[in-house]
Amino acid sequence: MTTLKPQTRDQLKLCTTATLSTQLFKRGLRNVWIDGARLMSSAKGVMVGEAFTLRNIPCREDIDHAGVFDNPDHPQRKAIETAPAGSVFVNDCRRDTRAASGGGILLTRLAVRGVAGMVSDGCVRDATEIAAMDFPVYCAGAAAPLNIARHHAVDINVPVACGGVPVYPGDVIVGDGDGVIVIPAHLAEEVAAATVEQERFERFVMEEIRRGQPVIGTYPPNDATRARYLAWKDTPR
Fold this sequence. Notes:
Layout: H1 6-12, H2 17-26, E1 38-39, E2 47-58, H3 75-82, E3 88-92, H4 104-112, E4 117-120, H5 127-131, E5 137-139, E6 151-156, E7 160-162, E8 165-167, E9 172-175, E10 180-183, H6 188-210, H7 223-233
Parallel strand pairs: 2-3, 3-4, 4-5
Antiparallel strand pairs: 1-5, 2-6, 2-9, 7-8, 9-10
């Protein structure tokens, strides 16, 4: 798994998924937004971490029964116990929302182990309990049935599709109040630095708009706006 530089991780925690999506768009990447994944917990701040993935296929009744969890090598349970601290657990459920991809016990275990958060294009059970957790949980909603009612976990830390987005192990996952975005690992440092600069500029733009400047000539900036921005940026605050 790719390891984020501490500086890059810290920069990304200052970024919004909206601005990150713009920077990725400028680099030709449009399919980076995990469709349907919304924040289900009370976590604050920005979730950042490298993707650690679990892939599911549809369940089969003669294989997926309650006794499978007695096996310590069951892929779902094994993935919960091996996801590295600082990673984001990405659960590929094929957008099937008819059963849970996890619940309060498993998500608490991830939190205790230092995992940075969980993302699924399926659902979670124990939604009321999860809503109170200070641990980032992004998914498509709530569903009471246990995972093996619809899902059969097969592969750990392989390329997956989550919410229509390809996610490779080590890709950088960022989540905020809008949702979750996927950054290819090799672009993370470059995109983080560019996003920090864009957001600094947009803070200036917001000040300009609030004091009555028009959007035209301000966003994007004309030469006069650029000059004011450079002066604003160099002014101590």
